[in-house]
TrEMBL record:
GO CC terms: cytoplasm
Keywords on record: 4Fe-4S, Chaperone, Cytoplasm, Heme, Iron, Iron-sulfur, Metal-binding, Oxidoreductase, S-adenosyl-L-methionine
Domain of life assignment: Bacteria
SMART domains: Elp3 (SM00729)
Biological classification of the source: Bacteria, Pseudomonadati, Pseudomonadota, Gammaproteobacteria, Enterobacterales
Protein name (database record): Heme chaperone HemW
Subcellular location: Cytoplasm
Length: 312
């Protein structure tokens, strides 16, 4: 019998205030207010349908991504995580990460998220340059980004992450390094430092901006990596840097081919059986009412495939 890998849970919140021109994730601009209670109940109904696949195993990590999860109210987050705990065997030391947009951050709401069980927040800063943020279609400015990081740092969370991008339209080496310096000065235990890529089916894909050339991108990466290393960060996967002991356990589980349940709009999962078979689940929309109109109905088709693998 195969030794089962760790099990995680991914929860998708599909809405944003507005869609960024580079984003190809399953996210949709709001058309009204988020129906917090209804969406949380649909998430928990979705989990009810998947609970059997957990096979009583312990959940090591939860990641609440989007979209913009920080649009949810504190009460909605409490109901959601209480519902998860009632249905799954959650490890006492489980890492529970939630993504947040600096433009939707409120101090009281951060406290409510922490009370609900969130112990790690990932803040989508992307840049500290006002012109670059506007070019990326972000709803926040540099001051809001710094405020969000300072709030997260003051909560006493297990960890917090800053998402930062480089290789931005018309970005110079010094501009990219200045973004990194400002991020490092905020002392996050974890930094995700992504190179902007142009994806199809995005606004940037249809109207590509001018990006730094390959030589400039290499200089940015090389000197940026040196800055991060000198500040005590260790690179442990393609775009992730962490202080010792602060690696994101949820993302490491993906990299190590671990198992995960996925609930919410467009989520998918992978679960290993004791005999070595692997179940993959994909939830497909059966009609167009799912995310775009702010009301998410549990009208999804669960597509399952089982791979007859004898070992991982």
């Amino acid at each position: 019998m195969a030794k089962l890998p760790p099990l995680s849970l991914y929860i998708h919140i599909p809405w944003c205030v507005q869609k960024c021109p580079y984003c190809d994730f399953n996210s949709h601009a709001l058309k009204g207010e988020v129906s917090h209670d209804d969406y949380v109940q649909h998430l928990l109904s979705d989990l009810d349908a998947d609970v059997a696949w957990a096979q009583g195993r312990e959940i090591k990590t939860i990641f609440i991504g989007g979209g913009t999860p920080s649009l949810l109210s504190g009460q909605a987050m409490q109901t959601l995580l209480d519902g998860v705990r009632a249905r799954l065997n959650l490890a006492a030391d489980a890492e529970i990460t939630m993504e947040a947009n600096p433009g939707t951050v409120e101090a009281d709401r951060f406290v409510d998220y922490q009370r609900a069980g969130v112990n790690r927040i990932s803040i989508g800063v992307q840049s500290f340059s006002e012109p670059k943020l506007k070019r990326l279609g972000r709803i926040h400015g540099p001051q809001e980004a710094m405020r969000a990081a300072i709030l997260a740092n003051g909560l006493g969370l297990r960890s917090f992450n800053l998402d930062l991008m480089h290789g931005l339209p018309d970005q110079t080496l010094e501009e990219a390094l200045n973004d990194l310096r400002q991020a490092i000065a905020l002392n996050p235990p974890h930094l995700s430092w992504y190179q902007l890529t142009i994806e199809p089916n995005t606004l940037f894909g249809s109207r590509p901006p001018v990006l730094p050339d390959d030589d400039a991108l290499w200089d940015i990466f090389d000197q940026g990596h040196q800055l991060l290393t000198a500040a005590g960060y260790q690179q442990y996967e393609t775009s992730a840097y962490a202080k010792p002991g602060y690696q994101c356990q949820h993302n490491l589980n993906y990299w190590r081919f671990g198992d995960y349940l996925g609930i919410g709009c467009g989520a998918h999962g992978k679960v290993t059986f004791p005999d070595g078979r692997i179940l993959r689940t994909t939830k497909l929309v059966t009609h167009a009412v799912i995310c775009r109109d702010v009301t998410w109905k549990a009208s999804v088709t669960l597509v399952m495939t089982i791979n007859p693998l004898s070992s991982l």
